[in-house]
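Input sequence (237 aa), recorded before submission:
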Amino acid sequence: MAITIYWACFEDEWIKAVEPEKVLKRFYSSQGIQSPTRNSPMALNYCPVFNETLGNTYAIKSIYDYSFKIENNRPVSLDHGQRFFDEHVIVRSVDKKFFGYQNRYIFFTDEDSLMMSAYQHPIFEDNEISKRCMIIPGSFDIGRYFRNLEFSFILKKDFNEFTVKAEDVLYYLTFHTKEKIKFKQFRGVPELSNMMQSLRRADSFNLSRRVPTMDIWYDKFKGKKWILNKINENLLD
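Predicted structure, token format:
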């Protein structure tokens, strides 16, 4: 049995987006730490603790070359113009060097429930993201909520510049199931974008004086059948 996970990139340049890549595959192909025999000290590929931990963990890549730096207490970028900056960079706190960077990936499933841990630090990558950023993690149920991913981070103390290259891994995702994953890409059409934005705008309402839990949003989530129908109308495979 395989679980279907629908995915899309809602960027104008969505054609550059690639299907999530298994972290185990990337690790073994890049590091070469494996052995054809079990009794070798290099036989990490025979270790169930390692392999099962990363069984359904996937790498998510940037689709852009981009950078900005902090100058005179404000973020400045010479890449792609101000409109791109406004649409892709969230300035949470310049003083704390706390930002967001968006490539607008989204994942959804027809399963009743499937937890996804997002924005995991890409520990097996040797790039500017792993070097410069402290990544803010998060988890939510992609069977009970429809929202795009953000990439929130704090620049480490030795850095005042964020930089990433196209196809650099931004973060890892883990889908909490032992079943195999089958990805299906769909086109992020305006109707789905509008639905997603409507659901996100609901987050801004002060529904409780206490710190909200995701159950508030799950309980208010509506339109799953409509979303799935629209996704299936716009499958790319």
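Checked by second reader. The two ends are 20 Å apart (CA to CA).
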